[in-house]
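Q: How would the structure tokens look for this protein?
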Amino acid sequence: MTGLRLTTDAREQALARGGYFPEQRLSYIRNLCLQTGNQTTQIPISQAIQFTAMLDYHNFPMKTQVFSVLLFLVPVLGFAQATTGTDANFSTGYQSSTGANRVPRAETDIPPTAEALQATLVELTDQYYAVHQLHWNVTGPLFISLHELYEGFYEVLAGYMDDVAERKLSLDQPADNRASTVVTGSQLTPATPGGFVTDKQSLEILAARYEQLSNNVAQRIVATGETDMVTQDLLIAVKATLDLHLWKVRSVMK
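A: Here is the predicted structure in token form.
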């Protein structure tokens, strides 16, 4: 018996890709096949499906076409709305003047605390880069020991930088850690030289800088003690770590 035949695989593909009207699309695919005698010749199923997608659109009722257009426009309109976030009139609906001003002030005098935290952040950052620079460029018999020691130093300093910045932000004060701010705000000396540095020289540089940084933080601990014990507690932890680093550096030179 002669007749039009679609393989099971082809029919399953057509149904799988048929969208909302698989049987109508399948009828188009059948008509696109070429019947010759007792054999059936098929065009590639992928080409048939691509072509029927166009035919389906033009043969579907108008309401279906309108629905298809709307399905396309909804995500586009949603994206357009999302991209207007920089508009001055854009509102998320979460704004609350009351909620936004709920900053812990009961035991906190913001200006001294903010200044102490900002100064500590800047100096910790300066020290972080100094230690990292010496970690890379130290030379001499103690290279491997100091290379690994300094790595541990700057990893700990990075953690305290984040803690100090977030404490300032928790008081609704911005944290400024830009390179220009660090350059102008930190007075730690000596400056870390460029190029290679001998192991002994690197120890002397860090010992001097750690001593200054520890003394500066000690003054801020006193300044915040009467008004902000939480910040004072954080600065005490910072100083304890700085003193530990200084001890390790100093001990090598004894």
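Confidence is low (pLDDT under 50) at residues 1-6, 33-43.

The first helix runs from residue 8 to 16.

Upvote if useful.
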